[in-house]
Amino acid sequence: MALLSQADTLIVDVPTIRPHVLAMATMHSQAMVIVRLTDSDGVEGIGEGTTIGGLSYGEESPESIKSAIDTYIVPVLKTCDIARVGATMVKVAKCVRGNHFAKCAVETALLDMAGKRLGVPVSDLIGGGRVRDEMPVAWTLASGDTARDIAEGEEMLSLRRHRIFKLKIGKRDVRDDVAHVGAICKALGDRASVRVDVNQNWSEAQAKRGMAMLQDVGCDLVEQPIAGDDIAAMARLATTRGVPLMADEALHGPRTALRIASAAAAGVFALKIAQSGGLFATAEVAAIGTAAGIGLYGGTMLEGGVGTAASAHVFATVPELAWGTELFGPLLQTEEILTAPLGYGDFAVKVPTGPGLGIALDPDKIAFFRRDRSTTVAAAPILHAVNAGA
Ligand SMILES: O=C(O)C[C@H]1C=CC(=O)O1
Ligand SMILES: [Mn+2]
C-alpha cells in the first residue's frame, strides 16, 4: 500500500540546438511537462508529458497538460493505493476523459515508483518484459535547408550516431518537397534510410501524387501524409502505388489502432506513449499492430530524457520493431536535464537498466530551466552544441 504524499508539476523550457522546421511550426525550444510524485514511504517517481509547438500539433498544450494533472488527476491519485498502477490508472480514466499526454506523464511517474519499490526496470512491468537492450535510433533533418540537412546527415553518419533520417516536409509545393527529399536520398545513397513526415499537411490528391514521386526518388516511408481522422482516405492511399504509409496523428490508443488496422489504412504504426495515453496503452497499440501484420516504429514527441527513457522501456518489450525508433529528443536540446544522459552510439539508443525508469533529474538544470523559476537562480548551466551521450 502506498499513498501519495506530494505532487509537483512543472513546465521546463530548453532551447533546441537549431531551429526545427515542421509543416505546422518552427521550434526554437521545447516545453516539457515534468511530474514528480512522492509516496508515503518517500519513494519518488518522475514522468513527462510533452507536445510540439504549443497547440499546433495536437489538442493538448504544455499548459493544459499541467492544469489537467494538477486540477483533476492529482485529486484522484489522493484516493488511490498508488502502488497498484493499473488500478490507479483505471480510476483516473473513469474521472478524466481524453487528456492522453497528461495521463501518460502520471502513469510514467507511477511506473517509475513501482519499479523502484520492486527493484526492477519499468520494462519488466510491461507485457513479458524486455526483448532488447538497445534499438536503432533515427534523426530528423529539419533545418529547412537542403545543403545543411545533407551536411548534418553526413555528420551523423560519420559519428555513427544515426543512419535513419526523417525529413519534415509538407510546407512547400509537393514538387519542391520531393526535390529536397531526392537530393538528400542521392547524397546519402545506400548508407542511410530516408523517410518523410508530412504532419497531415497534404490533401489526398497531393498525397497520391507525392507518394508515387517519393518512391521514385528512393524514399522508404511516408508518415501521416493527410489528416489523421480521414481513415477512408488513408486506406485508399495505403493501397495504391507509392511508399508505405505510417500512421502517426491518426493513432490515439488501442481503439484508433483497431480502426486503422481493420480499414487497412496504414502499413506501419508510429508508437507514441503520450498520444496513446500511457505505456500500457502503447503496448496494446503495438499488440494490435503486430496481430494485423502492421510494421512498428518507436515514435517520439521530442520528449526530453524522462519521456524518452519511458518510451525506450515500452519499445524494448515489443517483439518486432521493424522500423526502429526515433528516440533522439534529448539530443535536439542544448542541455541535458538528467544527471546522466541516455546512452547513444553505434546508431542505437540504450534502454536504461536501473530500477524504475533508471534515470534521475538534475536538480540544478530543473531549477534553471523551469518556467516559474525564481529570479534568484543564478548559476546558468553551460550550453553545449550537441549532447551526444555515450
Ligand atoms: O512525428 C512527429 O510528428 C513529431 C516529431 C518526431 C520527430 C520529429 O522531428 O518530430
Ligand atoms: Mn509524425
TrEMBL record:
GO BP field: amino acid catabolic process; peptide metabolic process
Pfam families listed in its UniProt record: MR_MLE_C, MR_MLE_N
Domain Mandelate racemase/muconate lactonizing enzyme C-terminal: 147-244
Annotated keywords: Aromatic hydrocarbons catabolism, Isomerase, Manganese, Metal-binding
Known cofactor(s): Mn(2+)
A GO molecular function held by the record: chloromuconate cycloisomerase activity
Pathway(s) per entry: Aromatic compound metabolism
Protein name: Muconate cycloisomerase
Lineage: Bacteria, Pseudomonadati, Pseudomonadota, Alphaproteobacteria, Sphingomonadales
